[in-house]
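Hi team,

As requested, here is the filled-out complex form for the nicotinamide-adenine-dinucleotide run. I kept the field names the same as last time so the parser does not choke. Let me know if anything looks off before we queue the next batch.

— J.
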Amino acid sequence: MSLKKETNILITGGAGFIGSHVVRLFVESFPEYKIINLDALTYAGNLENLKDIENRVNYEFIHGDICDTELLDSIFTEKKITHVVHLAAESHVDRSITDPLAFVKTNVIGTVNLLQAARKHWKEGEEHLFYHVSTDEVYGSLGDEGFFYETTAYDPRSPYSASKASSDHFVRAYHHTYGLPIVISNCSNNYGPNHFPEKLIPLMINNIIHKKSLPVYGEGKNVRDWLYVKDHAEAIKQIFLKGKVGETYNVGGHNEWTNIDLVHLLCEIMDEKLGREQGSSKELITFVKDRAGHDLRYAIDATKLKEEIGWEPSLQFEEGLSLTVDWFLENKGWLENVTSGAYLDYYKDTYES
Ligand code: NAD
Ligand code: DAU
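And here is what came back:
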């Protein structure tokens, strides 16, 4: 895609984990375009993630909810939005099990609200793109063999993945029915700086720092395919620029780990960095009740992205994990800030029930 002068890119969920990396990359890569970050600042959104770029002339933050249709209408009108990169979502599977309706509201209704705004404001023949950032969890769960391809049938199994699958279907439906120019990417598990410590890797890092127990669900044999968040942000930029309208691209790290092996590796890296005796963090591992409906294995085949767009992950996992641990150790204030308030209330209920 060749971007024209009047390009105003609305990024939703830009104060969250992946969104903050995407916003920074777009602000730095496209100085001639305006980047507008719309985020409701839920427990997962944090403007500290964007402190270094908040005064850039091509960046603007709007505090608001994608469920607010009047706000969306005014943003599309006043900011003359030409492109959308949509990341805002409720993103944590465990929370979707305790509160599915919050996921329907933001992930399904919020996405449809954005599609409606784009449909209303964009005219045929103009240059636009609605980019929906989605997940590999829409494909369901794999056995010991095989991969998710772009052609794999949808089979979501948690309220989170059902809400993301539903939003993907709406995005495609708006393309087929109204001709809205869309692209979708489905990515595997991300890790890296700014990751909220309710997800496996940052939760374990936080608990190792504080010598708290390390809760591994079930037997720890579930497998995830991990990708460094900055590699995902770069993939999003490349798909935004070169992706074909109407297409789907899988994004993954070719990097499968069982949860227990991953937690062991983290313990070894952190014992070394914290100057603790090797093996001491592993003693904190506690096998706890399994997640309801826990998907066994995710693994992405990202050949299409490599062959058609030229993207590949840049970092080896051990290197990315080491950088991630360093970031958390250097940003203990960030960890303390986000693990107070609403976060603590949620975990109090979870662990007491
Ligand atoms: P996150 O939970 O860290 O951030 C979500 C952001 O969305 C937060 O800043 C939050 O304030 C904002 N938000 C939530 N509800 C909103 C609403 N109603 N209106 C406006 N803003 C709202 O999530 P993440 O892990 O960065 O994931 C971002 C996107 O990428 C999601 O769509 C997720 O499904 C997708 N994804 C995530 C992963 C992963 O491993 N984390 C992998 C693949 C795809
Ligand atoms: O695959 C992409 C998805 O990855 C994204 O769409 C989601 O937004 C993101 O949250 C992530 O989902 P997972 O459920 O795979 O991530 P999570 O970090 O919650 O869990 C990773 C694995 O670790 C999973 O098998 C559950 C397990 N786990 C998780 C936590 C939080 C534990 O064993 N203990 C824990 O305390």
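Two things worth flagging: The chain has a mean pLDDT of 95. The two ends are 51 Å apart (CA to CA).

Thanks,
J.
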